[in-house]
What does this fold into?
Amino acid sequence: MGQETREQVVIVVGAGPAGLATAACLTSLSIPYMLIEREDFYAPIWTKKSYDRLHLHLAKHFCELPLMSMPAEYPTYVPRAQFLQYLDNYVRQFKIKPMYNRSVIGADYEEVSQRWLVKVHNSKSNETEEYFTRFLIIATGETSDTFIPDVEGLHTFPGRVIHSTLYKSGKEFSDKKVLVIGSGNSGMEIAFDLSNYGAKTSIVVRSPTHILSREMSNLGLTLFRYLPHDFVDSLLVFLSKIYYGDLGKYGIERPKEGPFYLKEKYGKYPVIDVGTYRKIKSGEIQVLPAVTSIKGDEVVFKDGKSHPFDGDDYLLGDDGISKLEFPNHWKGKNGLYCVGLARRGLYGLNMDAKLVAGDIKTAAMKMMTPDQTPSPLQNTNNVV
Ligand SMILES: Cc1cc2nc3c(=O)[nH]c(=O)nc-3n(C[C@H](O)[C@H](O)[C@H](O)COP(=O)(O)OP(=O)(O)OC[C@H]3O[C@@H](n4cnc5c(N)ncnc54)[C@H](O)[C@@H]3O)c2cc1C
Ligand SMILES: *[C@@H]1O[C@H](CO)[C@@H](O)[C@H](O)[C@H]1NC(C)=O
Ligand SMILES: *[C@@H]1O[C@H](CO)[C@@H](O)[C@H](O)[C@H]1NC(C)=O
It folds into this structure.
């Protein structure tokens, strides 16, 4: 099939949902590509690292990848196992064959040849491979590099520090004291799960955050298409106030700006409540302000108070990195693109994938010069 030829038209880095979506869109436009994945399976965050009770946070039509709907019989909130089945069908439907066990370790644009030189470490052969490509698409995910928040004195913490992507279930934490840092959706859901397993759970809420129920968030996403965004934001804040009341009592401030504004402008998601809030209200889960430093078994918080943690305790970190700002987040210079890096979830990466594939199609057609120099889409025998 010539998939491993050194000359490529498009290289996609990362075979998570974003890379798979991009691959499908490229195929539908008859654009050949090579997909590189450092692990030995696609979507490893879902297949290997996700925790046991995970459902998709959003209703299923916001979690679909391009060009293939989820089966009608799937419930509105798709459980992980069914999402995996969907991904499996997706990979087969679009005949996606990632090159596994390969990490991209660098990419340089060569002005003269107008191509990217992509350096890849093959972990199986322990060799460095080099490829050339006109278009380079980064779909490496926001959580791919296990990231532990950088807190002063973290190394002196006597207990275990782990990243939320390595968290599977609260089972091993029952009766343990756990501090979850990061109040995004995974942090909140993990706190809920830990508490259900009987862990003494605290969660750090660093900054003001909106809390919406699933229904509110779906209503918002639907109305958002038809109504002014300010209006939808005010409506959601209103509904959240009625439903949840004063969050400040429990240590959670509401932001001044609305949830969609914050999401679009800063990539800051509202928290979609899965039951955590009820536990916060009942005192089962304690909310703490930002951690300022750690001095051995004393964790110091922003309000000046400190709480003890010992060698049996855990600290679970969770964070993301937004690299490019919405809405110009998907296109860089010289044929460089990003898919799924704007903190907008599966819904966002679906849109990015379509935009990027369409843009590459247009750019590749333009490269067809009047003297009939073939476009990079012709003369390739590695169409997948
Ligand atoms: C626990 C959890 C639950 C989530 N639930 C939802 C939800 O319900 N709804 C929603 O919309 N979003 C959800 N998200 C957010 C987001 O949609 C998912 O994280 C989704 O997997 C993102 O897809 P991705 O392809 O961008 O990134 P990833 O799934 O992280 O995939 C990136 C891929 O790139 C590979 N890679 C990274 N670096 C390199 C490299 N240098 N070379 C080669 N390969 C590399 C990785 O191995 C990985 O396979 C959730 C996220 C998490 C962590
Ligand atoms: C990837 O590497 C792992 C471990 O090194 C190995 O078990 C697996 O067979 C490899 N997969 C592929 C597709 O090469
Ligand atoms: C891989 O190769 C590098 C040098 O190219 C060497 O230092 C390293 O020990 C090798 N690793 C394995 C696992 O063989």
